[in-house]
Amino acid sequence: MKNNEQKPDFLFDKVNYKILLIGIVVIALGFILMSGGGSDNPKVFSEDIFSFRRIRLAPTIVLIGFGIIIFSIFKKNKS
Asked: CB of 20 within 8 A of CB of 12?
């Protein structure tokens, strides 16, 4: 039996993974907000596709999510 066994070192800390997961959820929320707005009949144009939610809000939320992920990657460990 070896007493010198080391537990594997992970690249990130537990906090980094939590922040990364939050970023992924925020990106998914942005894509969910972006979906829809189409018309059931392809010959009828629907103005819903140009709503504030799909043009401004959803892409902003996706970019915020990517910013959160980048922050989680660059956050230093305390140890």
From this structure: yes
pTM (two decimals): 0.80
Report the C-alpha gap between 2 and 51 in whole angstroms: 64
> Tokens for 18?
């939590």
How far is the C-alpha of 79 from the C-alpha of 76, rounded, in Å? Answer: 9
Backbone angles phi, psi at 3, to 5 degrees: -90, -10
Instruction: State the pLDDT confidence band at 2, using cuts at 50, 70 and 90.
Output: low
> Tokens representing 25?
């959820």
Average pLDDT over residues 23-52: 88
